[in-house]
Amino acid sequence: MSIKDRYAIVGLGITKQGRLPGMTENGIRAEAILKAIADSGLKKEEIDGYVYQPGGMMGGTGGDVPRMVGLAPKFLWSLNTGGGTAISSLISAIGAIESGAASCVVCSYASNWLSERRLVGAPAGGGEVRSTAASYGMFGPGPDHALAARRHMHEYGTTSLELGAIAVTQRDYANQRPESQMYSRKITLEDHQVSRMIADPLRFLDFCLVSDGGIAFIVTSAERAKNLLRPPVYVMGVGLGHQVRPGWNKDQYTTLDVAPSKEAAFKTAGITLDDIDVAELYDCFTITVLLETEGYGWCKKGEGGAFFAAGNTKIDGKIPMNTGGGNLSWGYNQGFTPFAEAVIQLRGDGGATQVKGAEIALASGHGGTGTGSMQYCHTTAILRR
User: Fold this and answer.
1) Which stretches of 189-232 are DSSP H helices?
2) Residue among 63, 34, 113, 92 at smallest CA distance from 334
3) How many other CB atoms sit within 10 Å of the CB of residue 188?
């Protein structure tokens, strides 16, 4: 039986984003979960499933939080596919409900990376493979995506200014959202161009933020969702794609595995790309957004740079995209940031960046093991009001 419209998001909890000194990951996660429960109108005893992404990519906490907030889940699942985890968590929650293991599942992410500095790119993330890659300068996802950006520039003539258009557009969105980490910090294309080079050709403003913060959402059946506090956001379709191929395969640097993920999600949803009113794409780097946009088909392969430079992702453009500012400017919560914004838009809670009449949203995720290449997974969720 298809999952289309049989499951819904009924609660969303978002903490403050930015620097939260004195807050632990568990404390931030607990706050997000309690906010999601309050938002849903459910009682704590009705939450019988818990899926959590340990803070960040390199381990973390989260397993102790249910007892901290008074939950006693029958189903508990720790899951980490990096930026793909939010939608993978949604899929896991649906599976738990479908199998009878749970009836209401809370999914969560939290991090205090900004206040408690951590080393990203250490060998722990990818074991022996990452250690070998590190000897060639491949420390973490930055260099991986820099290779993708450089290859795209080489093959299609994409420019740093065009990547800058992505950063500036998303910052403009964040500047209109008071809760965003970068609310009061505007940038221009010139600012992007003079920001320091981190991993050539990616500059400081091509990178996502580092944030303290957390997000939680609650999944239940469409039947259970009918009489809760907030109007449900229904799941129309989901998909995954895994880019498992040799690290020396150059095709992986300009093509993410959007295709299988998109195909599965759209097949279940029974719609086409033209039906999407707003897109919330995972944005660890500007180049990631460009590759996803090409992969989904909003523009042809190689034309992503010009597509963004022309303003097609602004609120009045062809496809409003990352309308809260995303991981680049709103706050970094891995794949939970774009997923939460999709829910916000469909609830009509987007404030100054609300897409008028938004009925259907697409959210994506992109993440993996960090093994010194672009061997990442891609996830897709199509949601509706």
Assistant:
1) 189-194, 222-225
2) 113
3) 11
CB 138 within 8 A of CB 83: no
pTM exceeds cut of 0.85: yes
What pLDDT, in 10s, does the model give residues 6-43?
999 999 999 999 999 999 999 999 999 999 999 999 99
Residue type present at position 72: A
Consecutive H or E run containing 351: none
* Among candidate residues 215, 15, 210, the one with its CA nearest the CA of residue 109: 215
Dihedral sign for Cα 320, 260, 339, 181, please: negative
- Residue whose entry in the numeric block shows the structure tokens 């829910």: 343
d(CA 55, CA 25): 7
- 322 touches 208 (CB < 8 A): no
**Residue 257 burial (10 A CB sphere; 0-12, 13-18, 19+):** buried
Residue 93 has which token pair? 């929650």
What angle, 0 to 180 degrees and rounded to 10, lies between the N-to-C axes of helices 258-269 and 286-296?
50
**The pair of three-digit structure tokens given for residue 67, joined into one six-digit string:** 């007892």
175-209 residue pLDDT tens: 999 999 999 999 999 999 999 999 999 999 999 99
Main-chain phi, psi angles of 155, to 5 degrees: -80, -35
Determine whether 282 is an active site residue: yes
Residue with tokens 């795209």: 152
Q: Which of 109, 234, 296, 332 is catalytic?
A: 332
Domains in the chain, CATH or no CATH each: 7-117+211-225 (3.40.47.10)
Tokens, residue 131: 């250690």
Q: If you search the block for the tokens 């029958």, which residue do you land on? A: 74
Q: For the beta carbon of residue 227, count every other beta carbon within 10 angstroms.
A: 7
Give rounded-to-5 percent helix, strand, coil for the chain.
40, 20, 40
Total length of the chain: 385
Q: Is 332 a catalytic residue?
A: yes
DSSP string, 59-110: ----TTHHHHHT---SEEEE---GGGHHHHHHHHHHHHHHHTS-SEEEEEEE
pLDDT band at 144 (very low <50, low <70, confident <90, very high): confident
* Separation of CA 27 from chain center: 21
Which of 52, 109, 173, 282 does the annotation list as catalytic?
Answer: 282
